[in-house]
C-alpha cells in the first residue's frame, strides 16, 4: 500500500527554513499558544504559502481598501475548554475576540460571520446556549451576525463545540494604527487588571479554588477605542493581549517596530487573587491571557488625556501606565523589577495555559 502520510508528500527542505519549527515533525499544543512556536509556524509555513503585503503586517486585523472604503477584516477560532466559565463562555469569546481584533486597528466593528464545528453527541441545549450567548454578545458589541456555517464531525473527533468568527469594520479617515508605528517616546498603557481570563478558565478546568471566584474579563473594546480616538486619532499601536498575555503583545510590537520597550513591573495592575493563583501555580501574570484588555502605545503629548478618557469608560476604569517605548535594545522588552533590577521579558515558546480561547 502506498504511504499516504503527510511526511511522504511534504519535503521539509522545501519550507522556508531547512530546519523548520524547532525540528518539530508534528503539530504540538505550543504551535497554537501565540508564542515563539506560533510565530515560527506562521513565518515558515503559512506566510510563504499565501503571503502578501497585507498579511505581512501581522496585525490583529488586516486593513484593506474596497470600493474606496478602508476596512478592517479579521478571523479567529475558539476551542476553549470548558465551554463555560465564570464571567463568560465560548460564545462571548467568539464575538468579543473578533470585535476586539477589529478595534485594534481603530475600526468600528460592523458585521460578523459565525461557523460552528459540532461533535456528534453534543447536547443541543449546549449548542443553543452558545448560540444565545453569541447573539447577546453581538448585541452588546453593536455588531450583527450576518452569515455562518455548521459542520458536524464524528463522535470522538471533536470536543463538543468549536466556533470560528470573522468580522469586518470601517476604519475612520486619518486613523493609522499598526504595530510598526510604535516609536521611541511612546507611553505604554494597559486598559485594566491583567490575568483574569486565563486564571478563571484554569480554575474551572482543574477544579481549583483560590478563596474568591475569579471571573473572566471578556468584553468588547470597540467603544473604549472610540473614546481614545476621540482624544486623538494619532494612536500608534494597539494590541489585545490574549494568548501569551501582556508580555507577548509587547514583544510583538517591539519586534514589528524595531524599538525597545521598558516595562515597570510594579505598575502592571495584577489583582491580588490572580497574583495569589499565579504564585501557587508557578505562573507569571504577564504571560496569562486576557480577553477584555488592550495595550496602547500612545505619543507622549497625548498620553495623559488618553489615559483619562480610558478611565472614564467602563472597560478602561483600571487603566494604568506600565512603561515606555525606547530606542535602546530594539525588538526587546525589559522589565524594571520591584527590587530595582532589570530582567528580559522574552517571547514565550508556547502558552502557559492551553485551550483558554
Automatic annotation (TrEMBL):
Q: Where is the PurM-like N-terminal domain?
A: 60-171
Cite a single GO BP annotation.
Answer: protein maturation
Q: Which InterPro entries does this entry report, sorted A to Z?
A: HypE (IPR011854), PurM-like_C_dom (IPR010918), PurM-like_C_sf (IPR036676), PurM-like_N (IPR016188), PurM-like_N_sf (IPR036921)
UniProt domain PurM-like C-terminal: residue ranges: 184-329
Q: Which NCBIfam families match?
A: hypE
Q: What family does the entry list?
A: Belongs to the HypE family.
The identity of this protein, by name, is Hydrogenase expression/formation protein HypE
Q: Which gene encodes it?
A: hypE
Amino acid at each position: 500500500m502506498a504511504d499516504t502520510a503527510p511526511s511522504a508528500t511534504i519535503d521539509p527542505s522545501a519550507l522556508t527554513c531547512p530546519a523548520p519549527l524547532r525540528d518539530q515533525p508534528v503539530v504540538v499544543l505550543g504551535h497554537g499558544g501565540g508564542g515563539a512556536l506560533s510565530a515560527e509556524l506562521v513565518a515558515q509555513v503559512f506566510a510563504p504559502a499565501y503571503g502578501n503585503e497585507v498579511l505581512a503586517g501581522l496585525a490583529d486585523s488586516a486593513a484593506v481598501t474596497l470600493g474606496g472604503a478602508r476596512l478592517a477584516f479579521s478571523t479567529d477560532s475558539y476551542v476553549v475548554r470548558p465551554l463555560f466559565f465564570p464571567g463568560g463562555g465560548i460564545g462571548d469569546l467568539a464575538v468579543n475576540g473578533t470585535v476586539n481584533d477589529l478595534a485594534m486597528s481603530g475600526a468600528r466593528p460592523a458585521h460578523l460571520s459565525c461557523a460552528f464545528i459540532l461533535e456528534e453527541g453534543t447536547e443541543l441545549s449546549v449548542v443553543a446556549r452558545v448560540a444565545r450567548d453569541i447573539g447577546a454578545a453581538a448585541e452588546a458589541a453593536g455588531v450583527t451576525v450576518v452569515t455562518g456555517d455548521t459542520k458536524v464531525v464524528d463522535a470522538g473527533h471533536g470536543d463538543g463545540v468549536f466556533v470560528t468568527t470573522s468580522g469586518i469594520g470601517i476604519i475612520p479617515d486619518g486613523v493609522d494604527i499598526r504595530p510598526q508605528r510604535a516609536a521611541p517616546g511612546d507611553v505604554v498603557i494597559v486598559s485594566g487588571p491583567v490575568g483574569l481570563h486565563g486564571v478563571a478558565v484554569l480554575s474551572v478546568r482543574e477544579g481549583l479554588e483560590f478563596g474568591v471566584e475569579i471571573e473572566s474579563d471578556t468584553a468588547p473594546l470597540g467603544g473604549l477605542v472610540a473614546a481614545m480616538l476621540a482624544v486623538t486619532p494619532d494612536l500608534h499601536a494597539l494590541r489585545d493581549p490574549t494568548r501569551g498575555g501582556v508580555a507577548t503583545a509587547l514583544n510583538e510590537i517591539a519586534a514589528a517596530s524595531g524599538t525597545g520597550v521598558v516595562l515597570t513591573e510594579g505598575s502592571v495592575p495584577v489583582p491580588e487573587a490572580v497574583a495569589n493563583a499565579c504564585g501557587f501555580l508557578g505562573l507569571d501574570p504577564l504571560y496569562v491571557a486576557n480577553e477584555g484588555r488592550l495595550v496602547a502605545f500612545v505619543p507622549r503629548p497625548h498620553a495623559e488625556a488618553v489615559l483619562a478618557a480610558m478611565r472614564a469608560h467602563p472597560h478602561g476604569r483600571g487603566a494604568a501606565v506600565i512603561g515606555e517605548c525606547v530606542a535602546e535594545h530594539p525588538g526587546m522588552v525589559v522589565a524594571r523589577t520591584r527590587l530595582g533590577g532589570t530582567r528580559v521579558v522574552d517571547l514565550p515558546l508556547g502558552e502557559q495555559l492551553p485551550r483558554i480561547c
